[in-house]
Amino acid sequence: MAVSPEKPPLKVLLCSPRGFCAGVVRAIESVERALAIYGAPVYVRHEIVHNRYVVDELRAKGAIFVEELDEIPDNGAPVIFSAHGVPRAVPEAAAQRNLFALDATCPLVTKVHREADIHHRRGREIVLIGHAGHPEVIGTMGQLPAGSITLVEDMEGADRFTPRDAGNLAYVTQTTLSVEDTAAIVARLKQRFPAIVGPHKEDICYATTNRQEAVKRVAPDVDAMIVVGSPNSSNSQRLKEVAERAGCPHAVLVQRAADIDWKAFGSIARLGITAGASAPEVLVDDVIEALRRIGPVAVSVLPGREENIEFRLPAELAAS
Fold this sequence. Notes:
Blueprint: E1 10-14, H1 22-38, E2 42-45, H2 52-61, E3 63-66, E4 78-81, H3 89-96, E5 100-103, H4 107-121, E6 125-129, H5 135-141, E7 149-152, H6 155-160, E8 169-173, H7 179-192, H8 206-218, E9 224-228, H9 234-245, E10 251-254, E11 270-275, H10 281-294, E12 297-301, H11 315-318
Parallel strand pairs: 1-11, 1-12, 2-3, 2-4, 4-5, 6-7, 6-8, 9-10, 9-11
Helix pairs in contact: 8-9
């Protein structure tokens, strides 16, 4: 990236809000609190949140990350379920083994699980709008018997979907989707199936919505956008897509400053920076410091929607 002391400072626009959401804070604090109370090791099924830096930090403190319960020995150590949620069979299997399980599922994901369960008990066939293979989708679909939920990923899937009873349908969504893409899919489903029932309050979480809105405001006014986040983070991937759709000529998703190919940016005057909901602010600071090593930088934090939401820790940790 061509930035030199002879040129005016590079204008950096920091999106707000950015970075950690309440569900991510709760999940990370759950692991840290369990380590403080019970000591190492504490086992975590799947990455607690989708961020390598966070996972490495917790691993250094004594957390052991596994993908399946059969990797956990019967030593009485706590096992924590990640913020993305798990299929119902996982806590059932943990109970059968008498594992000390702690649920760090984001309460907004739990909300979707409860909605799906209510629809199922009312006899409705359920459509889940989401991305195949994502842990949150696996967890939501795993709340109910096989065949109860049909996954729809895009407009083509919405067109292909053939229900058993068009008059007895409901939909829920993954919490970290593109707001615009999801609205289009929902509109198509409602067009095809006017009786379909949706959630009382949108399933896409406040943090996903707020971060996408912030990117939309900034993207048309910058020459490039950096999204700090992990490639397996759904909400971070969506931020990159939103920036591109909103008119940003060049948007990249990076895990940390060391991963950035500055030459690919060319000569720019204005740069936007944001971070996914599972990316800590220290990684944003590292990007800004890297820019300052290249040349002068003028950083502005743009105003955005304030977030004051806090979630309580799991009862077993909050009471200790």
